[in-house]
């Protein structure tokens, strides 16, 4: 562009403030690709707009709907597979990172209500005060809680946590109306997934931005135990750890299990560290055991028995107490 602010950007600035809407090419280019740029071609959005609350989101969507301009929601910027890369010229990229408030933590209901810009790191720092935690995804702590749960990400926490941690949310539709799911539709209590009629929370999950923009979401929290121990066990074939993992999951002994290989994970990702990676086994299983005193000891005893039975090599052990992670 020639530096002249377009009429659309002026209208957006009237909604969110002059400093929060721009069509500057340098800024737009910074939003043009993600970590999968090698197979998702980069493309600049037409402009960037950064609302600070849901009413500004509503006004932006209504303006875009009037002009029939595509809108791409964007949260904390840890994106993959081109999810926030424009398809059409002149699209509005709706950067929701300013909306980063934890609206509520309810220890009795074990829930947290968050805006799109809240990261897992931010949420953990607050929930651990109540000895609670979110279910952590296979992603950095800088990713958005709302978006990851809305997308049903891949989780490394206890299998019993499941993969669906969303209870209810508010979605603003292109015409400015608000869709409230679950118990939100009936009351001010957002703690229950199911209300009257269909499960709209499930119906609109896993395709963010297609039908509207989710501005707040209530999710489940889980207990953060005082007694926690991590094991790193090495194997030279993949079949043996598979059986070991099955036993842990079948008996519900581990809070988190991860199988990584030496080449693509340990050496491929962490290979910049000064460490003799070639001395490691071909596969490493990372196991977290946790629980209250007594129950923890019983689980840990069984886990060590399965470790001995499978013949894996214990590489390292960490023991945490009093909720430290």
Short description:
The chain has 325 residues and is α+β, with helices and mostly antiparallel strands. It has nine helices and 15 strands. The longest helix is centred in the C-terminal third of the chain and has 16 residues, at 295-310.
Please tell me about this protein's structure:
- This protein is α+β, with helices and mostly antiparallel strands and 325 residues long.
- It has three domains: 7-95, 2-Layer Sandwich (Uridine Diphospho-n-acetylenolpyruvylglucosamine Reductase, domain 2); 102-223, Uridine Diphospho-n-acetylenolpyruvylglucosamine Reductase, domain 3 (2-Layer Sandwich); 227-320, Alpha-Beta Plaits, CATH 3.30.70.
- 26% of the residues lie in helices and 23% in strands.
- It has nine helices and 15 strands.
- The protein has a five-stranded antiparallel beta sheet. A four-stranded mixed beta sheet has the order 1-2-4-3. The protein has a four-stranded antiparallel beta sheet with strand order 13-14-12-15.
- Strand 5 (102-106) and strand 6 form a beta hairpin.
Give the CATH topology of the largest domain: Uridine Diphospho-n-acetylenolpyruvylglucosamine Reductase, domain 3
Q: Helix/strand-derived class? A: alpha+beta
* Through-space gap between termini: 49 Å
Task: Give the helix tally.
Answer: 9
Question: What is the H/E string?
Answer: HEHEHEEEEHEHEEHEEEHEHEHE
Please tell me the overall pLDDT.
87
Largest sheet: 5 strands, antiparallel
Contiguous low-pLDDT stretches (5 residues minimum) are: none
**Overall tally of structural domains:** 3
State the CATH architecture of the largest domain: 2-Layer Sandwich
Helix content: 25-40%
Q: Which descriptor suits the 3D outline? A: globular
Side-by-side strand order of the widest sheet: 5-6-10-8-9
């Amino acid at each position: 562009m020639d530096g002249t602010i377009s009429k659309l950007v002026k209208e957006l600035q009237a909604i969110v403030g002059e400093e929060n809407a721009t069509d500057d090419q340098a800024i737009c280019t910074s939003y043009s690709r993600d970590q999968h740029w090698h197979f998702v071609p980069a493309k600049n959005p037409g402009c960037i707009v950064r609302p600070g609350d849901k009413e500004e989101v509503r006004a932006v969507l209504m303006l875009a709907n009037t002009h029939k301009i595509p809108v791409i929601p964007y949260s904390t910027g840890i994106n993959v597979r081109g999810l926030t890369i424009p398809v059409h010229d002149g699209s509005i990229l709706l950067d929701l990172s300013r909306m980063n408030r934890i609206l509520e933590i309810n220890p009795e209901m074990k829930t947290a209500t968050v805006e799109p810009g809240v990261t897992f790191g931010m949420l953990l720092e607050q929930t651990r005060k109540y000895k609670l935690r979110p279910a952590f995804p296979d992603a950095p702590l800088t990713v958005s809680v709302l978006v990851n749960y809305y997308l049903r990400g891949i989780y490394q926490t206890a299998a019993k946590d499941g993969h669906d941690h969303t209870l209810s949310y508010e979605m603003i539709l292109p015409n400015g109306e608000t869709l409230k799911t679950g118990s939100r539709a009936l009351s001010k209590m957002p703690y229950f997934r199911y209300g009257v009629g269909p499960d709209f929370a499930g119906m609109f999950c896993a395709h963010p931005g297609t039908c509207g923009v989710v501005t707040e979401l209530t999710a489940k929290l889980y207990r953060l135990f005082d007694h926690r121990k991590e094991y790193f066990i090495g194997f030279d074939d993949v079949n043996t750890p598979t059986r070991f993992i099955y036993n842990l999951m079948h008996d519900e002994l581990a809070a988190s299990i991860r199988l990584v290989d030496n080449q693509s994970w340990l050496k491929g990702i962490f290979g910049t560290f000064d460490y003799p990676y070639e001395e490691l086994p071909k596969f490493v299983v990372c196991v977290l055991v946790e629980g209250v005193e007594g129950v923890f000891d019983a689980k840990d005893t069984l886990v060590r028995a399965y470790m001995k039975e499978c013949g894996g090599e214990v590489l390292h052990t960490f023991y945490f107490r009093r909720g430290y992670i």
